Amino acid sequence: MKNQEVDKAIGLIVVEIIEYIPNSVVIKTIIKKSTGNVSAMSFDTGEGLTEKTSPFDTFAQIIDGNAEIVIDGKSNFLKTGQAIVIPAHSSNIVKANERFKMILTIIKSGYE
């Protein structure tokens, strides 16, 4: 996994700020704050994120391709333009049955 940061105060075409790299997951940080972060991610076919649980709500929006996001054992198939909220404390897996890009937003405030 590669992680790079995005320049600030410059207009972005969101789908173009992250590239596909064969056999890889690429992460580009857009905003990283103590209260949460926003990242652009690309997944090549067959790649994904292992099962995890976050103590925070996470918003995943597909910006290119189709993704499978499994939440508490239930598969959700999302296509370009669709989004889902992964609830805090829910197990989740991100799968790339085909390559796709997404924006992932984690909100850390409101859980004090």
Share of β-strand residues: over 45%
Number of structural domains: 1
Which value, in Å, is the CA radius of gyration? 13 Å
Helix tally? 0
Say what oligomer this is. single chain
CATH topology: Jelly Rolls
Low-confidence stretches: none
Q: Name the helicity range.
A: under 10%
* Total number of strands: 9
CATH fourth-tier homologous superfamily: Jelly Rolls
Which descriptor suits the 3D outline? globular
CATH architectural name: Sandwich
Give the ordered list of helices and strands.
Answer: EEEEEEEEE
Question: How is the main sheet built?
Answer: 9 strands, mixed
What is the top-level CATH class?
Mainly Beta
Instruction: Look at the structure and give the mean pLDDT.
Output: 92
End-to-end separation: 31 Å
**Helix/strand/pairing category:** mainly beta
Description:
By secondary structure, the chain is mostly beta strands. It has one domain (2-107): Jelly Rolls, CATH 2.60.120.10. 0% of the residues lie in helices and 57% in strands. The chain has no helices and nine strands. It has strands at residues 2-5, 25-33, 36-43, 48-53, 58-71, 74-79, 83-86, 91-95, 100-107. Strands 1, 2, 3, 4, 5, 6, 7, 8 and 9 form a nine-stranded mixed β-sheet that branches. The radius of gyration is 13 Å and the shape is globular. 16% of the residues are buried. The mean pLDDT is 92.
Protein traits:
0% helix, 112 residues, globular, mainly beta, 9 strands, Jelly Rolls
